[in-house]
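Supplementary Note 3. Input sequence used for the single-chain structure prediction.
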Amino acid sequence: MKIYTKDPATILISWRRFLGAMLAVALMMPAVAVSQSSPAPVDLGTSGDFVILAKTGISTTGVTSITGDIGVSPTDHTAITGFGLILDGSGTFSTSSLVVGRVFAADYTDPTPTKMTTAISDMETAYTDAAGRTLPDYTELYAGDLTGQTLTHGLYKWSNGVLVSAGGVTISGSASDVWIFQIAGDLTLANGAIVTLIGGAQASNIFWQVAGQVTLGTTADFKGIILCQTLIDMQTGSSFDGRALAQTAVTLDANIVPVEDEVAAPKTFALEQNYPNPFNPSTKIQYTIGNAGLVSLKIYNLLGKEVVTLVNTYQNAGSYTVLFNTNEGTLNLASGVYFYRLEAESFVSIKKLVLLK
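The predicted structure, written as discrete structure tokens, is reproduced below.
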């Protein structure tokens, strides 16, 4: 039997040619993402009892609607402005016509001061936890411009700011998936930008840890829990499904927090999204009331001024459809975003509608 051999130089040349061929094939193949982790959720502790929590203040203008508790500490209740606070008889919290929930401040009667100190401490611990997660699945992805992208679960890290322009961003995953976004700079949603959830993704499992400022532009629609080291600024008409936890202040201007802000009332109460939306000149608004009583359905502009009253009467339990026609009467509305608000017993719900001429 003959054994054929090649000299070492020939073997080396053949090996190099083989590696070159494999590299060429690899370059022609589409990129394959590395298998992702599914990070553990960030434990919010008692800060998770609040939809808005801040250290230096919470302010609002326009027709803001908040479902859930809000609070400030170590500053006092005077740093909560624009809400028309009414102190409860217990002295432990206030109420507001803009908040379906309670309003807490560090200077209220015991045990509120301790409650607020603990909540702020838990918020800061949650921020540190989110910022300290290691081994990110993605680093500097898309150079921080997430516009038009789809993000699956995992740990993301950026050394600068993150931007979502009007094209929006999609977050895709199951109800058990978790996203943690570590952002060393600012987080900015441009005017009209939308964060869309698909596949069962839950806002409660999306954590935006932001060292800089968070800005939600006019009519932007945000999803997730913000853990912010500085200011959270919600501009005119932006909506928010999640929690806004800031180590400085939160400012609002005719916002809805969360987006689906129906309060704890019988399930037979409901306000549906108008259809069509956007619309011109007319759209239909449907709602259901579980018990007979006084019902109010009104339209407001972004400045909080009432535009028209569609319903203000006693109605029996049941489902109703109301036509909003901008050509009727003396209405002369410009294109833009408006709000419609339904009140029936303790049920309050607000949704956005868009007029396009």
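Residues 1-6, 21-35, 260-266 have pLDDT under 50 and may be disordered. Residues 8-28 form the longest helix (21 residues).
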